[in-house]
Specification:
This protein is α/β, with parallel strands linked by helices. It folds into 2 domains: about 5-190, Rossmann fold (3-Layer(aba) Sandwich); about 195-270, rRNA adenine dimethylase, C-terminal domain (Helicase, Ruva Protein, domain 3, Orthogonal Bundle). Helices cover about 40% and strands about 20% of the residues. It contains 12 helices and 9 strands. The protein has helices spanning about 15-25, 40-50, 60-70, 90-95, 110-120, 135-140, 150-155, 190-195, 200-210, 215-225, 225-235, 250-265; strands at about 10, 30-35, 55-60, 75-80, 100-105, 125-130, 160-165, 170-175, 180-185. The strands form 2 sheets. It has a 7-stranded mixed β-sheet with strand order 4-3-2-5-6-9-7. Helix 2 (about 40-50) links the parallel strand 2 and strand 3 (about 55-60). The radius of gyration is 21 Å and the shape is elongated. The N and C termini lie far apart (about 50 Å).
Length: about 270
């Protein structure tokens, strides 16, 4: 049977966990499910038993061929491609509805895949994803916690996230060196609700979190904002002058961005 360890994937073998992943997607009888990195097809079997249609996106040619021999094409379409190159909008248009996503994400490209899904949010309804536990900790973290940072803000601005369960290395073959966590992501962007523009706000967030040990004021000053404007914005948003970015909720960050934009638009520094 083909191996994909060279591509950084560890195959899930825990049958109970596989069923939990499929169940976590909810009622998918009328849904098209896009599976990222199906590998040898363990999760694919569970999805195919529940979904109207499955599109399994597999970059490895040997594994893609192996999958084609396992599933009827009318139920499971094997798309031999890198998920980063897949046009999710076209897939959703063909399906006639927003997509559901599932996947055991390869550790080495987890962040690019998350950003890909965020960019394609208009075509997506929800996702059940497995990532390294430490990454999941950062994704679901709230303000005032050690793990809260730019990844937390970026993902959560595109919709609520929820940790579901964590698996030990022994659930996989070959066993990885880390635990893995499954989380749910519902795509419901908050930009309009919070009164911010997506790209400028996320650019601001990158600058606010640039150096974790520095205060928000120092990070923004390094980004080019005038100190007087920073302090005025912090005061108007009821944020202490020595606050760090990881102390601020999405709402507080959005409020500060809005106040600073009135005085000193971020694009002056780009």
């Amino acid at each position: 049977m083909p191996s994909r360890s060279r591509l950084g994937q560890n195959f899930l073998r825990d049958t109970h966990a596989i069923q939990r992943i499929a169940h976590a997607l909810g009622d998918i009888r009328a849904e098209t499910v896009v599976e990222i990195g199906p590998g040898q097809g363990a999760i694919t079997h569970a999805l195919a038993a529940k979904a109207a249609h499955v599109i399994a996106v597999e970059v490895d040619p040997a594994l893609a061929a192996h999958l084609r021999n396992q599933f009827p094409p009318e139920r499971v379409r094997i798309l031999e491609a890198d998920i980063l190159d897949v046009d999710l909008a076209s897939v959703a248009a063909e399906a006639g509805r927003r997509l559901v996503v599932a996947g055991n994400l390869p550790y080495y490209i987890t962040s690019p895949i998350l950003l890909k899904l965020a960019a394609g949010h208009a075509s997506l309804d929800r996702a059940i994803l497995m990532v390294q536990r430490e990454v999941a900790d950062r994704i679901v973290a709230g303000p005032q916690s050690r793990d809260y940072g730019l990844l937390s803000v970026t993902v959560q601005m595109y919709g609520p996230v929820e940790r579901l369960f964590t698996l030990p290395p022994q659930a996989f073959s070959p066993p990885p060196d880390v635990h893995s966590t499954v989380f749910r992501w519902r795509f419901a962007p908050r930009f309009a609700e919070l009164g911010v523009e997506d790209e400028p706000f996320l650019r601001f967030a990158r600058q606010a979190f640039a150096q974790k040990r520095k205060t928000m004021a120092n990070n923004l000053r390094a980004a080019g904002y005038e100190l007087a404007g920073i302090h005025a914005g912090l005061s108007a948003a009821s944020i202490p002058p020595q606050a760090r970015a990881e102390e601020l909720s999405l709402e507080k960050l959005a409020a500060l961005w809005t106040l600073l934009q009135r005085e000193q638009p971020l694009n002056e520094f780009q």
